[in-house]
Design brief:
- It is a single chain.
- The chain is an alpha/beta fold.
- The chain folds into two domains: about 260 residues, Alkaline Phosphatase, subunit A (3-Layer(aba) Sandwich), CATH 3.40.720; about 110 residues, Phosphopentomutase (Alpha-Beta Plaits), CATH 3.30.70.1250.
- Helices cover about 35% and strands about 20% of the residues.
- The protein is built from 13 helices and 14 strands.
- Strands 10-9-11-1-12-13-2-14 form an eight-stranded mixed sheet, sandwiched between helices.
- Strand 3, helix 6 and strand 4 form a beta-alpha-beta unit.
- Helix 1 packs across helix 12, helix 10 runs parallel beside helix 12 and helix 11 runs antiparallel to helix 12.
- It is globular.
- Bound molecules: 1-O-phosphono-alpha-D-ribofuranose (R1P) and manganese (II) ion (2 copies).
- 1-O-phosphono-alpha-D-ribofuranose binds next to strand 5.
- Pathway: Carbohydrate degradation; 2-deoxy-D-ribose 1-phosphate degradation; D-glyceraldehyde 3-phosphate and acetaldehyde from 2-deoxy-alpha-D-ribose 1-phosphate: step 1/2.
Length: about 400
């Protein structure tokens, strides 16, 4: 029996979705903007990269075809197309769950762009149950900015930093040793419980190290406390069918550990590619590997670092031949994304975009699958490929 691999390039959208205007994202295009910035020289950084975007392998597979960009290159080598999201939000869990065949049929709770952003009753409940002396932040913010602004006071007072974004999230940053990593995780579990009635998708622990605003760094001990997916996912169906599901990076957290057999954690895109290759190496026939490459989003998209994003794409592209070489004759590997995060767009939030689908394997015949009406077509196709059936949502493109 064949195997399947999904690699989510977190935030790698390829153009505004038809409903992008509803999200304030008309005109956003993560891939297109990076391409343009590279072309014009705006994505040059000494010692990092320069010139036009160099992604020969993604190009060969059909990324430009999927994005509707004319190229002088030949025919695409992968099944190629793009997909729209039916879930009404542009966050990570919604995107991943829809890819896995469980779109979100309701609106998430979010916190207003006011100061304070969190309801006093919520903060009171969390404080009563966690013995913290108070909180800092209490607003919408970029996680790295707020660390510079509030980190030193947090260390001095022992008050953790609470912040949010347009996503359905409560993020809590605290120092790994001064506050304590385990204590932060316990605090997040408490917060998770009190966020449930507000329909908040995720509470995220954001531990950091360092001793001053200039040296604070967020660590790889980030942990997402997610509510479970709203329906049966491809991962659930695979494990129920006796298959092994390897979850690489934050996949297990995103799926609230449901439908996951083995967790492989790693820090940084290149280590995550290594972990993905390790999982492919261990997967047996009928198994599923699901991997998330978070740096595109967390380190470059939200930071609006277009040169960094371009360099990260080039670095991933250079690893693609290794991934292709790791595939057995019957395998199917799908590259896609969960939402956009255009590094040239105003603000620091995700952008509502269509995502690429590049599906390849030694015996997969390339063809154009056009614009898919749901990310769920990916899960449906993999379900068919793995002989698990298409699932409730989505139409197989195989
Ligand atoms: O600015 P940072 O802390 O990276 O936060 C980002 O990460 C969150 C979860 O992915 C998003 O909601 C966005 O706000
Ligand atoms: Mn994401
Ligand atoms: Mn994000």
């Amino acid at each position: 029996m064949p195997r399947a691999i999904i690699i989510v390039l977190d935030s790698f959208g390829i153009g505004a979705a038809p409903d992008a205007g509803d999200f304030g994202d008309a005109g956003a295009n993560t891939f297109g903007s990076i391409l343009k910035a590279c072309e014009s020289g705006a994505a040059t950084r000494t010692g990092l990269r320069s010139g036009p975007l160099h992604i020969p392998n993604l190009k060969r597979l059909g990324l430009f075809h999927a994005a509707g960009i004319e190229t002088d290159g030949g025919a695409a080598e992968a099944i190629h197309g793009r997909a729209r999201e039916i879930s009404r939000s542009k966050d990570t869990p919604s995107g991943h769950w829809e890819i896995a065949g469980a779109p979100v049929p309701f609106e998430w709770g979010t916190f207003p762009k006011t100061r304070p952003a969190f309801p006093a009753s919520l903060i009171r409940q969390i404080m009563d149950d966690s013995h913290i002396p108070g909180i800092l932040g209490d607003r919408h913010a970029s996680g790295t900015d707020i660390l510079r602004e509030e980190g030193e006071e947090s260390v001095r007072t022992g008050k953790p930093i609470f912040y949010t974004s347009t996503d359905s999230v409560l993020q809590i940053a605290a120092h790994e040793t001064h506050f304590g990593l385990e204590r932060l995780m316990a605090l997040c579990e408490t917060a998770r419980r009190h966020c449930d009635p507000l329909n908040i998708a995720r509470v995220i622990a954001r531990p950091f190290t360092g001793e001053s605003a200039e040296t604070f760094r967020r660590t790889a001990n980030r942990r997402d406390f997610s509510v479970p997916p709203p329906g049966e996912t491809l991962l659930d169906r695979a494990t129920a069918g006796g298959r092994c599901v390897f979850a690489v990076g934050k996949i297990a957290d995103i799926f609230a550990h449901r439908g996951v057999s083995e967790v492989l954690k790693a820090d940084g895109n290149m280590a995550l590619v290594d972990a993905t290759l390790a999982a492919i190496g261990r997967a047996r026939s009928g198994d599923l590997v699901v991997s998330n490459l978070v740096d595109f989003d967390m380190v470059y998209g939200h930071r609006r670092d277009v040169a960094g994003y371009a360099a990260a794409l080039e670095a991933f592209d250079a690893r693609l031949p290794e991934i292709e070489a790791a595939l057995d004759p019957g395998d199917l590997c799908v590259l896609t994304a969960d939402h956009g995060c255009d590094p040239t767009f105003p603000g620091t939030d995700h952008t509502r975009e269509e995502v690429p689908i590049l599906a390849f394997g030694p015996s997969i015949a390339p063809h154009d699958i056009g614009v898919r009406t749901s990310f769920a077509d990916i899960g449906a196709s993999i379900g068919v490929h793995l002989d698990l059936g298409p699932g409730r949502f989505g139409t197989s493109f195989l």
